[in-house]
Structures are given as structure tokens and as C-alpha cells.
Amino acid sequence: MPKINIAIDGPAGSGKTTIGKILAERINYHFIDSGLFYRYFAKNCWDNNLNYKEKEKVVEFCFQQTQDIIQDPTSFFQLLEKQRITLNQPEIGKLASHFATILELREMIYQIVRKIVISKGFVVGGRDITFKVLPKAEVKVFLTADLVIRAQRRYQQLKITSEGKIKLAEVEAELIERDQRDRNNILAAEKSSLRVDTSNFSLAESVEKIYNLYLKKINN
Ligand code: DC
What we know:
The chain has 220 residues and is an alpha/beta fold. It has helices at residues 16-27, 34-47, 55-71, 73-87, 90-99, 103-117, 129-133, 147-161, 168-181, 183-192, 203-218; strands at 5-9, 30-33, 122-126, 139-144, 194-197. The protein has two domains: 1-29 and 124-206, P-loop containing nucleotide triphosphate hydrolases (Rossmann fold, 3-Layer(aba) Sandwich), CATH 3.40.50; 36-120, no CATH class. Strands 2-3-1-4-5 form a five-stranded parallel sheet, with helices on both faces. The mean pLDDT is 94.
């Protein structure tokens, strides 16, 4: 059966990563969480005393790393896996959303993603995958849910890793801030793909919905 690529965009907490991973496993594809790439570069810059306002230094610092990643994506994925818990901390998400405003850094991440998915068989989650990174992906979904529901889902996830230190109201406030910063990408993604609102769907139903889009595509 020929393989395709599936792009899933959506706001923070929409379930892209959870749903994307389950879907990828079900159809024997690989899942790429592009948000993790932004988080990785943001943290790496920060650890090396680079602020997102020092754009030129950030770009120079990330350039060679990008070349190395393109040469050897497997080692990069192993590194991401090792750092996953740290990278998923809310502070790193916030930092990533600032670094993500650097267009040159975005271009580097686009290059990495495009290089990796060239062989097809990938589910890629992000903010601008459907209209910017992989506009020719065979299935393009804009996944969303009401703010309150997204906040609750994110809170449940973070409660485990933050050992109960996090508050629901803080998570909601953070999402509002992130939505605002990601606004342009969110609007463009919504226009260029099929909107799937998971507010009233269970996890299984959400996966099923995208799985059906995948089936429809490959049987066409
Ligand atoms: O999906 P996430 O929360 O891990 O993303 C972290 C930040 O990275 C998000 O606020 C915006 C940025 N991002 C982006 O601009 N484009 C993507 N494709 C993925 C993430």
C-alpha cells in the first residue's frame, strides 16, 4: 500500500500529539511532533545564554546544529526522546513560542521536517504544517477544541509531571497567551485544512475521525 503524509495542526492543548501518536502507531507510520523541535532549539539557546531577542546570534547558533540534524536525524530523535520530559515543561513551551517568532529559525525547522518526511509514512503535528511546511501532505487536518476543554486536558497531563504543583487557572491563562502568539498560524491552518473539533469527542473518537480521512485518501 502506498504511504502518504498526514499533517495535523492545531492550537496548544488540542490533542495533536496524543492523537497523532496513536494514529501513527495504528497505521504503522512515524509521528513527528514539530513543537518539540521548537522546544529543543529554544532550550538549547537558553542554556547557552542566548535570548530570543538576539536574533542573529540565535540563527548562527542554530545553523550548524540544523546541518548536523539533517545529516543524522536518528541521533536527533534519540536526543529528543531523552529530553522529552524537560522539553514538555510549560516554561519551555512558553520560551519556544518566543523563539518561534524568528523566521530564520522556522525555516531551519521546515528544512529538517521536509527532509525527514520525504520517504512518506509520517504523521506530523504542529502549527503550520498544513499550509507552510507540507502544503502537499495528502491529509491535512486542523484539530481544535474549546479553550476550557483544552485547558482541562493539558492540566491532566501536566498534573502528573509537575507533581501537583500546577493549577488549572494557570494552564488556561497560559493557553490564552499562547493562542494569541500563535494566532496567525492558527488562522491560516484553519483555512487550509479540514477542521475537526474534538470538544465533544473521546480520544478514541478523535483518532477514528482522522483514521477515516486517511482510509478515504489511500482507497481513492
Ligand atoms: O505544540 P507545542 O506546544 O509543543 O509548541 C511549542 C511552541 O512552538 C508553540 O507555542 C509555537 C511553536 N510552534 C510553531 O510555531 N510551529 C510549529 N509547527 C510547532 C510549534
